Structure formats: structure tokens, C-alpha cells
């Protein structure tokens, strides 16, 4: 069957150690007054914020700072940043941080040119009808791949959901990836974000919405992560491993244009209802998702297995059936093998999880097997 595809990629991607110093020069053609969006104190502690501000000032780009984007950013925080960007007459938005900051900043850049609260656009009560301000994503972790795509996942406490706001207008004008910014990332966060990147690569690769472009990105990201993530965890100062992870993160984020699967379908309500951090939920679910899906896409799961075990010679069918175990082995190697049961989820909660899926992720139909109640239950039970 002929391929159809609808892919939005970041307009310009600048990659390399030390390149944060170029931020100002890169931003100058895009705007005169930037709203810099950050989270807590980590970009202050590491010096990344100072470097970014100095570079902007040296290039003649004015800036104002919005700080306090929380993990799993809310629509309310987004509204506050939008209000600041409007009142300060900003014409450019820079997200400097991890996935939460970049997602929030991405939505801010879009909604500064629109009226009404963020929740209206997230819940499809209003339509995006014009481009936002130019958006520059500067990633300080290697996880969500937010800098490579048009998606912002936002928490809506009133509706008790985490839901994506997405539009082709939301793709960054510029992604700046400086692997040196990730050198200070603690081991746990390296593992946590790295597994999210791995899940984007794997889920998009086997997705029913995959196309040759997203498959190429996803598979390359998997190969890079299988090799580099254990190295980055063993030696956080390994710039080459950090660079491979930053690249894999970007590739995985771009591959998300092909769609996600059961791990993400379940991780969103587990985050919204039970507060389980995204990467933790993904790591708890993904091996069982591989087990559940592998016979629906055996050749692709065989390639996934070989990304972890390039030297093992077995048939495609055998390799596919071992993909879940290969991932379990990988998770133990990086010392990050959580279970849902450790987060106070038990079988009595599954109905609530399923309701959350209906509210937030029921539109996702790209898992290789139809992700109905039975399949999701099978995965949840095995992930406790
Ligand atoms: Fe994710």
C-alpha cells in the first residue's frame, strides 16, 4: 500500500558541544525581545541561563525571564507565561530546560498570538488559526525530543488529564542542542529521560502511522541509545555518549511524527491520575508492551532486538519474541527497572486508568495491535 505521511520538522537544528554561546546570533534574525521560559533552579545552578542571557545581550536581543515551569507543566502555568509575554511585548520565545519547559514554552509561543485560555485550545473548544511567535528550543536533557516536533503535553488539573496540544505551527524555528548542557544531569534523570527517548524511537518505529522517514529516525535513535545510555550513566562526563544521547533524543522526537503506542497511551493517565512521572511509567510498561505487540510486527521487533543485541544470530521470529527480555536486561543494566506496583497502583485502579485513556488518549490508534480494554489490561497486569 502506498505510504501517506504528514510530518513537521524543526526548521533549523544546530548541534554541537559549546554551541549555546551562539544563541544570541542565532536568535537575532528571529526577534528583538525574547521571553525566556525556564523551570526551577537547575539552569541557574549549571550556568546555562547566564550563558544564554549573555549571548542574547551581546547580540543585541533583549530578554525577560519567566521562571517556575513545573514538571508535567499545567495549562495554568502556560496561561501565566502567555500573559507575561503579551504584557512585555515579546516577539520571540525561548524554552531553556528539559521536556516540561520546552513543551510549555512551545505552547506559550503559539498562544501569545491567540486569545483565550490554553485549556480552550487543548480541549478543542477553540481553533488554532494563525502562526505563533518564533520559538527557539534549547534542550538541557535528553528525553522528550520536544525540540524536534509540534507536540506539547500539558496537565489540566480541572479536567484531571494530561493531553497533548499539537499543531504544525508549534514546531520550533530553531532547536539548539549543546550536549555540554547535559553533562550535569544526575544518573537517575539520565536514565529516566533516556528511556523516554528510547520509547519514542521504539513506539514510533512499530506504529501503524510509521513511514520511511520516521522509521529511519526511530531505528537510528534506538541504536544510539542502546550503545550510549549505559556509557552516559557510568560516566556522566563522557561527552561523546552525551552527544549521542542528545542526537538520539532529537531523532526520537522527530520520529514521533509517526505516532506512539500502548506505553504512551497508558503513561498519560497514570501520570494524571496517580502522579507517576512520565519516564517511570514508560519504563514500567515498555517491556510488557514489547511482549504484547511483538507478534503483530515481528520484523520490526526483530530489528529492535538487534539494536540491543547486534551480535546474537537468531531468526526474525525468535529475535522479535526476545525483544521484551532484551529491554528488561537493558533496564537492569542501567539500574532503572520500576514497577507500577511500587507507585500504589493495583488491579482495582485499572478502571480509572481506562477512563483516563478514553478522555485523553483514545484518539491514538497507531499501536500495532488495537489498544482496547483487554490489551491494555494485559499490559497493566504484567507491569505491576
Ligand atoms: Fe514520552
Give structural notes.
This protein is 49% helix and 11% strand. The chain has 384 residues and is an alpha/beta fold. The protein has a 6-stranded parallel sheet, with helices on both faces. The model has no long low-confidence stretch (mean pLDDT 95). The structure holds fe (ii) ion. The site of fe (ii) ion has 7 residues, from helix 7 and helix 11. Fe (ii) ion is lined by residues 144, 196, 199-200, 264, 278, 282.
Helix content: 40-55%
Instruction: Detail the poorly predicted runs.
Output: none
CATH architecture of the largest domain: Up-down Bundle
CATH topology of the largest domain: Dehydroquinate synthase-like, alpha domain
| Main sheet: strands, sense, barrel | 6 strands, parallel
Order of helices and strands: EHEHHEHEHHEEEEHHHHHHHHHH
CATH class category label of the largest domain: Mainly Alpha
Rg on CA atoms, Å:
20 Å
**Mean pLDDT across all amino acids:** 95
Roughly what fraction of the amino acids lie in strands?
A: 5-15%
> How do the strands of the widest beta sheet line up side by side?
1-8-5-4-2-3
State the CATH superfamily name of the largest domain.
Dehydroquinate synthase-like - alpha domain
What is the overall shape? globular
State the end-to-end CA separation.
39 Å
The number of distinct structural domains comes to 2
Structural class: alpha/beta
Hetero ligands: fe (ii) ion
Short description:
The protein has 384 residues and is an alpha/beta fold. Helices cover 49% and strands 11% of the residues. It has 2 domains: 12-182, Rossmann fold, CATH 3.40.50.1970; 188-382, Dehydroquinate synthase-like, alpha domain (Up-down Bundle), CATH 1.20.1090.10.
Amino acid at each position: 500500500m502506498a505510504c501517506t505521511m504528514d510530518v513537521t520538522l524543526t526548521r533549523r537544528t544546530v548541534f554541537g558541544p559549546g554551541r549555546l554561546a551562539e544563541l544570541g546570533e542565532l536568535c537575532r534574525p528571529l526577534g528583538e525581545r525574547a521571553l525566556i521560559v525556564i523551570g526551577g533552579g537547575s539552569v541557574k545552578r549549571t550556568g546555562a541561563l547566564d550563558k544564554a542571557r549573555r549571548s542574547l545581550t551581546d547580540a543585541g536581543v533583549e530578554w525577560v525571564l519567566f521562571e517556575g515551569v513545573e514538571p508535567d507543566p499545567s495549562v495554568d502555568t502556560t496561561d501565566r507565561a502567555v500573559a507575561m509575554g503579551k504584557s512585555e511585548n515579546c516577539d520571540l520565545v525561548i524554552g531553556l530546560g528539559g521536556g516540561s519547559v520546552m513543551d510549555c514554552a512551545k505552547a506559550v509561543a503559539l498562544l501569545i498570538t491567540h486569545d483565550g485560555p490554553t485549556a480552550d485550545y487543548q480541549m478543542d473548544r477553540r481553533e488554532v488559526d494563525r502562526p505563533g511567535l518564533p520559538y527557539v528550543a534549547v534542550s538541557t536533557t535528553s528525553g522528550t525530543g520536544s525540540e524536534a516536533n509540534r507536540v506539547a503535553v500539558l496537565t489540566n488539573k480541572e479536567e484531571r488529564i494530561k493531553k497533548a496540544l499539537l499543531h504544525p505551527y508549534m514546531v520550533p524555528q530553531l532547536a539548539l542542542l549543546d550536549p555540554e548542557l547535559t553533562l550535569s544531569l544526575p544518573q537517575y534523570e539520565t536514565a529516566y529521560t533516556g528511556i523516554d527517548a528510547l520509547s519514542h524511537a521504539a513506539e514510533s518505529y512499530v506504529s501503524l502511522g510509521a513511514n520511511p522517514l520516521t522509521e529511519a529516525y526511530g531505528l537510528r535513535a534506538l541504536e544510539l541509545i542502546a550503545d550510549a545510555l549505559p556509557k552516559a550513566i557510568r560516566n556522566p562526563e563522557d561527552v561523546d555518549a552525551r552527544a549521542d544521547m542528545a542526537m538520539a533524543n532529537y531523532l526520537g522526537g522527530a520520529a514521533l511524527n509517526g505516532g506512539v503506542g500502548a506505553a504512551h497511551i497508558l503513561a498519560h493517565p497514570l501520570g494524571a491520575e496517580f502522579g507517576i512521572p512520565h519516564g517511570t511509567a514508560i519504563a514500567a510498561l515498555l517491556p510488557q508492551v514489547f511482549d504484547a505487540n511483538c507478534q503483530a510486527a515481528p520484523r520490526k521487533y526483530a530489528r529492535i532486538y538487534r539494536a540491543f543485541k547486534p551480535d546474537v544470530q537468531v531468526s526474525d521470529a525468535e529475535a522479535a519474541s526476545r525483544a521484551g527480555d532484551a529491554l528488561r536486561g537493558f533496564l537492569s543494566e542501567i539500574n532503572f527497572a520500576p514497577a507500577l506496583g511500587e507507585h500504589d497502583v493495583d488491579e482495582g485502579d485499572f478502571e480509572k486508568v481506562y477512563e483516563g485513556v478514553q478522555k485523553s488518549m483514545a484518539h491514538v490508534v497507531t499501536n500495532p495491535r488495537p489498544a482496547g480494554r483487554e490489551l491494555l489490561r494485559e499490559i497493566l497486569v504484567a507491569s505491576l
